[in-house]
Amino acid sequence: MLCGISIAHTQEFSLGPIIGLNNAWIQDAPGETTGLLGLNAGLTLVYSTEEHWGIGMDLKYSGEGVKTKLRGETANTHLNYVRIPVKFIYFFNKFGNDFRPKIYLGPSLGILAGGKTELFLPVGTQKVDSKDVFEEVDLGLTFGTGFNYRIAPGTWFNMDVAYGHGFTNIAKSGDAYNRKISLNVGVAWGLN
User: Fold this and answer.
1) Which CATH class is domain 2-190?
2) pTM for the whole structure
3) Which helix (H) or strand (E) holds 3?
């Protein structure tokens, strides 16, 4: 009985590292825009006492940005965020299954930690701190799908594909809204 209580408790909380790739772009920015690839990495925490429902939260660095062409000039904008998405998760299958697909949805907070915007001009390259051009806070929505696979007792391999949709205008002048697709992998351990 004590062993069963311990196993049930470890299923309530799980914590571990995550790492992944972003394909990010900025919607409604002037000119012709294309996405930039970036890395994201951090920690994920999931709390679940119900067989099919849980809540999760990530704390991670996220490299985002956009490449822009406007009036013959090109700019690469790199935006480095600390991202905190909160995820309301629905798990398929049962607690005892090794393979548990999932879907999730929830709000996301992004805090601009830095980055550079490089303007490629005919007379040379000009670099600007991205904080001088973009707002420090980005609020949005994240939704995604993926799975958890038990690789050992109390240890889960996680894989997710997510879409992030910014709702706040991040440009200090004009309009610009963050968008991104992320692919993440990680490992989470049940906490005692």
Assistant:
1) mainly beta
2) 0.86
3) helix 2-10
